[in-house]
Amino acid sequence: MPKRTIRQRIHAGFVLAAAFLLVLASNRLNNRNFSTVEHGVDSVFEDRLVVQEYIYRLNNLFHEKEMFLAYNSLDEKSLPQYPEIKTILADFEKTDLTREESLQFTSLKENYAELKTLEEKHLKDQASEEDITAVLNSISTNLDELVEVQLSEGRQLTQQSKRSLGMNQLLSRIEIVFLVIIGILFLIIVFYRDKPNMELVEDEA
User: How far apart are CA 172 and CA 27, in angstroms?
Assistant: First the structure.
């Protein structure tokens, strides 16, 4: 095989550098997209499905209070107490809350605090059943809004993960095409032979 010229070596070096940079850039983008997908999956589970369970449990507990209030007089009784509500709210607060979710959760805590106050006042005949019912309705509205937030955020995270996976597939196809083109250029550079300079021969006079 003939020795490669300096020009061929330079061209081959450029081609190899381009291939290296292409693979490096593709790898960085793929890792970034996979991180987005991983974050989306983790967030759907930790901040949406788990929170959905919290909301479901809270809704059941407050609904039991509403049912008790609907079928029993509080003249000589108080609403049933559920210590686990406080624990659930504490766990809920540790999750990654969106802006809308944070607003509704803050309202929920305020309404729950008001409910506790009204329950204590009712024992002293300072609050009516209607006041307690109104607060329980507000709590129910807070929980319904929080459910809507979970559905909306879960949908957005799923769509974002799908877009990232789609981008990875597109980048893989583009990478293959460019690697084929670079490989062809490299073969052309390696096996291309410069034609020898043609010498002009003058006819003898």
Answer: 10
